[in-house]
Amino acid sequence: MNKAELRKKYKALRLELSEDKIEALSLEIANQLLQLPVWQKEFYHLFLSITEQKEIDTENILHILQGKDKNVVLSKTNIKEHKLEHFLLTDSSVIKKNRWNIPEPEGGIPIAPSQIDVVFVPLLAFDEQGHRIGYGKGFYDNFLSECKADVIKIGLSFFEAEPEFNEVFSTDIPLDYCVTPNKLYSFKN
Q1: Any known ligand binding at 29?
Q2: 137 is in an annotated binding site
Q3: Is 155 annotated as a binding residue?
Q4: Residue 74: per-residue pLDDT
Q5: pTM of the model as a whole
Q6: Which of 42, 120, 138, 174 could cross-link with 130 by S-S, CB 3.0 to 4.6 Å?
Q7: Intervals of the chain under pLDDT 50
Q8: Residue 138, annotated ligand binder?
Q9: Where, in this chain's numbering, is ATP bound (predicted)?
Q10: Residue 52 marked as a ligand binder
């Protein structure tokens, strides 16, 4: 299957999930995350879920990060420059949904991509080599290319890995890990 077919397949699979199932699977993913050796870092980039797209609910991960007193970084979409802008989540952060229903900070304390240690990466599908398929706009690949070389990239998926993608481009940045409700995948050599 090509990327377009895989996007269609995994969007359809997500649409079949009930709210209760999403909540249960999201909690299992958060619990699996605790096994990764990534909790000694300082700045963690987290995406906030698009509930209309039936994405993984990242609220449990947010609670883990806050409980460990970590700096949480959220993104705002800059459509004109085709980039993400990053802001520190604070008690005074105001979160609003943009026109694509993505919850985003209205502004705040800017954080440079080079400051971020760990990125939780949204995706629709991934393969056993750590390649991911997102919504196809390239925002996360652009963002990850701006991060420091040793940034830890963790995908989150309701579903297990595909064996291998046919289409992988030079601009595609592979994951270091992917976490599903049942398994931790490590792509680090």
Answers
A1: no
A2: yes
A3: no
A4: 97
A5: 0.94
A6: 174
A7: none
A8: yes
A9: 3-7, 132-140
A10: no
The whole-angstrom separation of Cα 184 and Cα 69 is: 24
Q: What is the pLDDT of residue 154?
A: 98
Start-to-end CA distance of the chain, whole Å, equals 27
Give me the residues paired with residue 74 across strands.
87
Unique residue bearing structure tokens 């000694």 = 40
27 a known binding residue? no
Q: What is the Cα–Cα distance from 95 to 125, expressed in whole angstroms?
A: 27
4 a known binding residue? yes
Q: Which residue from 107, 109, 34, 28 is spatially nearest to 65, judged by alpha carbons? A: 34
Q: Is 14 annotated as a binding residue?
A: no
Give the pLDDT score at 189: 62
Q: Known binder of ligand: residue 139?
A: yes
1-53 pLDDT, tens digit each: 788 899 999 999 999 999 999 999 999 999 999 999 999 999 999 999 998 88
Sign of CA dihedral 141, 32, 29, 72: negative
Q: What domains are there in the chain, each with its CATH number? A: 3-186 (3.40.50.10420)
Residue with tokens 């925002």: 139
